[in-house]
Amino acid sequence: MGVPYVTVNVLEDDLLRNGMKEFSQWPTFPQVYIDGEFFGGADIMIQAYTSGELQETLEAALNG
């Protein structure tokens, strides 16, 4: 979608992986954060992309 992003491989570090699950209260990966807030996993991202919500959220984060 043409926005800057950073990836982190949490599967390489058990402490980080378990900490991310606890922090987000989401049990699976990938986990997507937008503007520092947990947005969702793959299923949520697909739904948000399809509905246009993802584009709106990204634009708001970039312009906010």
TrEMBL record:
Alphabetized UniProt keyword annotations: 2Fe-2S, Iron, Iron-sulfur, Metal-binding, Redox-active center
Keyword Iron (UniProt): yes
InterPro entries (alphabetical): Glutaredoxin, Monothiol_GRX-rel, Thioredoxin-like_sf
Domain Glutaredoxin: 2-38
Keyword Manganese attached: no
Entry superkingdom: Eukaryota
SUPFAM superfamilies noted in UniProt: Thioredoxin-like (SSF52833)
Sample GO molecular function, one term: 2 iron, 2 sulfur cluster binding
Family in the record: Belongs to the glutaredoxin family. CGFS subfamily.
Official protein name in the record: Monothiol glutaredoxin-chloroplastic
